[in-house]
Amino acid sequence: MLKSAFTEGRGLFIAVCLAGAGLTGCGPEAEALPEEGSGAVQQALTEGAPLATHDASCLKLQDQNTWSAYTSYMTPVGPALGLDDVLLDLNRAGPVLGSLNHPPAAGYKGGFRWNDGDMSTTEWIPQGMTAGVSGSTNVAVVAWHYAAAAPDKGVRISVADISDMSLSAVNYRHVLLVRPTSSGNFTTIPEHGGGLAWFGNYLYMADTADGIRVFDLTQIRQVDTSTTCETAIGKVGSVWCAYGYKYVLPQVSAYVVPTATVSPCRPKFSFLGKDTRGTTPVVLSGEYCNNTGTSCPYDGSTPGLGGRLYRWPLDSATNKLKTVSGLVAPEKAYIMNEPNVQGVAPIMTSTAATSYWLSSTRYGGALFKVSTSASRTAYLSGSAQWAKMPEGMHATGSGTNLWTATEGVSGVTDPASGGRVVFFATQASVD
């Protein structure tokens, strides 16, 4: 049992916001729109400024409601397994980092690197991260996206036993994410895997263009690992294949942005986070954008800074998002005023849901402490204050540790100088 891209200028924004598809809620709540006919413009943004509250009343997510159908599709594949079963069958070892080979980071406490093959592979790239407890085991979960040529193997996750970081290595295993397609068949998830959040039995994953996918950690299936299966997915003859992986984790449903919702209301889902502060837990989602090749729908006159952060309320009894007539409304939204954001975690020592850590590849790697009331505090890799190329994050509910996974600097395998790692620091050291 588990416990636990808009740069053409202001005129286009106005046309879409005021005339397109009946949209409302196109800017910060603090900035009232001028009177009709006066030429409304998007608010200028400043890097490092406080979070700006954003009106997201135009946005809803729709539950695809495939919970029962997708679960039944997987029945012929074999008996459902839980995460505990996989944790008894971990087949890889990641050496624990020592005093001489860990990345520089304020408040660094510990971490591990992947095995040699996973440190150097160019086929798979680490992205999102979350953590939780399965039975009595503390578990880190890291998503990797497939970066090689076709066929696209989609996204895999690594489940790692981090219960005892005093050991010489952390044991882990890769599991392939799949989507059921019909009774007894499934395919890969061709997504980036940019963000994860774990609530109860459900693992939430960012779907960049469309919303959030959900996977059930009690519905894992063991599949065939023969030579035939190394190049195949789904049912092949009398067996089921997953490109050589022993276990698959199936999608059960998804929360998607309706097709009628268009830019700038329609966001990107680049990363996710988990926030359990307050009475209602939330899934956090955010947009990656920069000032060069990747813009965001709200960037307007200040490309790179318009990435938005959304809070999606969760029903703590079911661990599903709260819906009204099948639709989920964001509880709150903010303009982050930061570029290159790759992950988010709540500042657990603050009960107010207005303060966060953001991991960013700005300046080669940074951790930003942000809130609605103050300009950011930055911990930079160039000043030996944070790791290079940080991605997903997880803050423990006790307010003790802040976990981060890194993508790794291309071609670097030394964990002290940019190689791929998973590490944790004291929350108090960066609060």
Automatic annotation (TrEMBL):
It comes from the Bacteria. PROSITE patterns: PROKAR_LIPOPROTEIN. This is Secreted protein. It comes from Hyalangium minutum. The lineage of its organism: Bacteria, Pseudomonadati, Myxococcota, Myxococcia, Myxococcales.
